[in-house]
Amino acid sequence: MDKHPNEVMWRLAGIFTLVACGLPGSLQADDKESAMLTLQLRSRQETAPQTGRFHAVVKSAQWDPGQVAVIVCDMWDLHHCLNATRRGAEMAPRMNALLNHMRSRGATIIHAPSSCMERYRDHPARKRAQTIPRATNIPKDIGQWCYKIPAEENGKYPIDQSDGGEDDDLEEHQRWAAKLKAMGRNPGAPWKAQTDLLEIRNDDYVSDNGEEIWSVLEMKGIARVMLVGVHTNMCVLGRPFGLRQMARNGKQVVLVRDMTDTMYNPARAPYVSHFTGTDLIVEHIEKWVCPTITSDQILGGQPFQFKKDTRPHLVVVTAEREYETNRTLPKFCLEQLGKDFRVSHIFANADERNDLPGIEVLQDADVLLLSVRRRVLPPNQMALIRNFIEGGKPVVGIRTASHPFSLNGKEPPAGYLAWESFDHDILGGNYTGHHGAGVAVSVQVSASGSGHPLLAGVQTDQLQGYGSLYKAGPLVTSATPLLIGAVPGKDPEPLAWTNTSKYGGRVFYTALGHPNDFSQPAFNQLLKNGIYWAATMVSAD
Question: What gap in Å lies between CA 361 and CA 92, rounded to an integer?
Answer without folding.
Answer: 27
